[in-house]
């Protein structure tokens, strides 16, 4: 098995990463709600995440009723970071279907690359590269 191919978000806001390996997972622009609870405490509902894979479907009785969900794992380090809602059995819970829960304790938030972090990382990590901003692609 080789090194996983990771996607990155081109976003000017905050992004959320895997706490264990810092793989990019999603953007604050895709956040639906911060009013969720997971096994580790506070959890966030997102419309879309990247660099994850889903486990097999499982029917679980949760606080808000019965749902068919799949555990969500980071593609880079295989750490469980949350779950995906396949189906809600209650009509008033159907808004969760097709969305992802990421547990706050398993992710971290940081400013995106658009704020200059990539530029600073690129110029400081390579001694052969000159510091001319025109030579750095972000």
TrEMBL record:
InterPro entries: Yippee, Yippee/Mis18/Cereblon, Yippee_fam. GO terms for molecular function: metal ion binding. Keywords: Metal-binding, Zinc. The keyword ATP-binding does not apply. It comes from the Eukaryota. Pfam families: Yippee-Mis18. Residues 14-111 form the Yippee domain. The keyword Ligase does not apply. Belongs to the yippee family. This is Protein yippee-like. The lineage of its organism: Eukaryota, Metazoa, Ecdysozoa, Nematoda, Chromadorea.
